[in-house]
Amino acid sequence: MDAIDQRIVAQLVKDARSSYAEIGKVVSLSAPAVKRRVDRLLETGVLRGFTAVVNPEALGWGTEAFVEVYCDSNVSPDRIRQRLEPLHEVVAAYTVSGAADAIVHLRAANIHHLEDALERLRAVDMVSRTVSTVVLSTLLERPPAPEPH
């Protein structure tokens, strides 16, 4: 990924609806040249797709929590992912260093829905215990920068 690719990615992060011609003006390339680079960035996995950024609260998913998940024994990350996928309230899950086996990000409609989701998470066969932290407010949320600082 060169400097032009980084600038293309930065423009797409800023506004994914930008046309190839608009991006080309910013990076001094033709629209077809930008398209070729975007296609290559998609093929190599730098870009994983294009999407709308939605306010979860506006869709009725305003309650969220981060949950430390502790498993009974050594459990592979793939098995953890397989067990979490059916839980629709799980919006992200991560393997982590430290005592917990994974951190799970849950979203729910309200505190009662969150409690139900937590109970279903705790009922997953490999889960021995959880530690939950309910989010009160979001202080900062931003997309990754196209180039590390």
Automatic annotation (TrEMBL):
It comes from the Bacteria. InterPro entries: AsnC-type_HTH_dom (IPR000485), Dimeric_a/b-barrel (IPR011008), Tscrpt_reg_AsnC-like (IPR019888), Tscrpt_reg_AsnC/Lrp_C (IPR019887), WH-like_DNA-bd_sf (IPR036388), WH_DNA-bd_sf (IPR036390). Keywords: DNA-binding, Transcription, Transcription regulation. Residues 1-62 form the HTH asnC-type domain. Transmembrane segments: none annotated. Gene3D superfamilies: 3.30.70.920, Winged helix-like DNA-binding domain superfamily/Winged helix DNA-binding domain. This is Lrp/AsnC family transcriptional regulator. It comes from Actinokineospora guangxiensis.
